[in-house]
Amino acid sequence: MTQQFSTTTMADEKQPAVAPATDTTREVTSKDGSHEEIITPTRPPGWMYKGFKVFGHEFWYASPLFQLLLVSLVCFMCPGMYNALSGLGGGGQVDHKAQDDASTALYSTFAVVAFFSGSIANKLGVRLTLSFGGLGYVIYIASFLSYNHNQNHGFVVFAGALLGVCAGLLWTAQGTIMMSYPTEDMKGRYISWFWIIFNLGAVIGSLIPLGQNINKVAGPVTDGTYVGFLVLTLIGAVLALMLCDVGKVQREDGSKVIMMKNPSWITEFKGLFETITSAPWVVLLFPMFFASNTFYTYQSNDMNGSQFNTRTRALNNTLYWLAQIFGAVIVGYALDFAGARRSIRAKGSFIGLIVLTFAIWGGGYAWQKDQATREETAEKDFVPVDWTDGGKKYIGPMFLYMFYGFYDAAWQTCIYWYMGALSNSGRKAANLAGFYKGIQSAGAAVFWRLDGLKKPFDTMFGATWGLLGGALLVAAPVIWMKIQDTVPLEEDLKFSDETVADVAGAQGAAGQATHPEAVGAKDGAKEVV
């Protein structure tokens, strides 16, 4: 008989941790007549732990999966609507300058704040961090509604800078939950489930401008588009407050999320740098981080926003985010494939990214080299592509744009999985997520600025493709040699002030004492034998 448990580390959100649950034991008889004891962890009393079943699977409010669903819905409402708006090209405006300048400001502040946001999330807790982060999306959408009437360029740029601060906090809190709440054998699926719900927000959000602008072939999107986005982002910011505090979360196996018992600003900023100094080779992943949002500029503005008319941009946008859902499902489940060791899966995913990078972007080059230049698309007599053009003129680039969406999901899912595979520590996960989003935003800021400087479309395409290929080359040693089949419990605990007893209760402590090197065959889940 075995019992599995895994560990993570997070800041105490100033709430008492869950009281240790008392396990119940029952004896069952197998088909061969042997007897074995099955230990079922008993959840603490209270409404947060009262189970309910959905499609045969039991949930409870303070379970990791239910909390993931909540944070996914927040991102469905907030970043999902932002993605839907950005995917229209120019924030739905004819002139892209306002969004270019706002995006440069956004990603500049995002890069600075996100780099340190792991410490902020560990100190304040994910609930407050996530909710405050959601408010920035509300103000950003409102600025474009205002711009539709008064062309207040300054307000849009300010909203972009503010959103950079808020988004840095939101995405760090989200990444912490997604990477540290699940057990090791479930991380790919948790990432996949989040990506599905998050991108459903972008898909549904894209249907709003598609419906509003279905008969519109020129000009900015309507006010109704912005109002719809505004309402949904506001709901998302409020929904974040419904997350439960980390100390109350309990997994199916009875294990809990480890928290720093007494976090302070000093300990958390110190932990930020310990994340690097304890594993300096992690910087080899930074080019992948840097490249991970750069392709949005070319895809949304230089391809979709420049070569297609208003209603066709809206359709392309919907298909792009829909393709991301399929990408997340395929890649996320493949990363959790139980038939291969985790180290083997890491190598396989890396090879897959190389193939996708050269196949999809190679197809993109074949299309881009024959397209109108930036100067030509700005001329009054330029006629953008409409979906009724069909054939090679529209159907080909439509599928290319969908493959770009699939590629985005594959790239982002793999990066999150690589980070989650390096540590189960939630405290370290928060810092890695902050590094990821900060460096990612620095890359995005550079490419939005290049677009704002009106660099040729071919240059934007070539720079993006070259960066993606180079990033994979630099990251290869980490993916190939540093991702192990499991992370030992002792290694995770080094980054916190918790003990084995705090993590897994009495049984876990006993198992650790009697079998200190017990590591299960399934993705490193610790086994008490």
From TrEMBL:
Name of this protein: Major facilitator superfamily domain-containing protein
GO cellular component: membrane
PANTHER family: ET TRANSLATION PRODUCT-RELATED, UNC93-LIKE PROTEIN C922.05C
Any one GO MF annotation of this record: transmembrane transporter activity
Keyword Membrane included in the entry's annotation: yes
InterPro entries for the chain: MFS, MFS_trans_sf, UNC-93-like_regulator
Keyword Transmembrane helix in record: yes
Compositionally biased region (Basic and acidic residues): 24-37
Pfam families per UniProt: MFS_1
Record membrane topology: Multi-pass membrane protein
